[in-house]
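Protein Entry — a single chain follows
Fields — amino acid sequence, structure tokens
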Amino acid sequence: MIDTTTAVRLPGDGVTLTADRWDPDGTHSHGTVLLLHGGGQTRHSWQRTGARLAEHGWSAMAVDARGHGDSDWADDGDYAIAAHARDLIAVAASLDTPPVLVGASMGGMASLVAQGANPTLGRALVLVDITPKAEPDGLAKISTFMREGLAGFDTLDDAAAAVAAYNPHRRRPPRIDGLRKNLRLRDGRWYWHWDPRMLSHRENGPEQAGVREEQARAAARAITVPTLLIRGSQSDVVSDEGARDLLALIPGSRQVDVGGAGHMVSGDDNDVLSEGLLEFLADDVSAYRPR
């Protein structure tokens, strides 16, 4: 498996974003795949997927969203989905050819909104456990987990325990050093490395859920490129109804379920996610020709 990455900086909308890039080894690239993480995550959640894509002839870039990881924090505190979508539009404009957009949760919603507003932005769209109709209880669980981590942790073991409590069906890794990529040590405590203002942004609150859903549904109706929904079979965010709704909104779209995975599919079963993505790229994207 190709495990050599190149760190790159990409232009966002008023911010500079950090990404890891993988390229095929000595072969022609089929194109570029942008990998976009969920809220509170970083580009490192896509490491195995990026390497697998390069192994199969694709260039891949896993991008830290604004306010996350090593990307800039927004001076004005704007972390609305529209802001993430504008960043994605700027990144895509910097590339030679339209990319395949692969977004999990927050990254998926930004991809959907950006592609809906710009039908030729990407050559295909992959939504990882996110649809316009999201389950309120699942979203509230994510918000609670993120808010409870604002005070930081005494040790990495404490952070790992918090993750395990949020996602009990995920197999706990034997080593916790990987958490260092998502945490920073300050004054003797470990803090998640994302801007807390994201949680307080007026457009991200539960009272705006209906507005966000209608905006996402409008975007979905405008999608014309090949589209795949990768859903965790144990997701508490995307229900069967939500998945059916998306497939109805985007004619020709299809769905892959990842057995045993919850909302954080890229971490729960990254290999199965990658297999579904690679099959979609080979069967649907490579053969697709815009009308």
Summary: Strands lie at 6-11, 16-22, 32-36, 59-63, 100-104, 124-128, 183-186, 189-192, 227-232, 254-258. The chain has one domain: 6-135+207-285. The domain at 6-135+207-285 is CATH 3.40.50.1820 (Rossmann fold). Residues 100 and 169 are 30 Å apart (CA to CA).
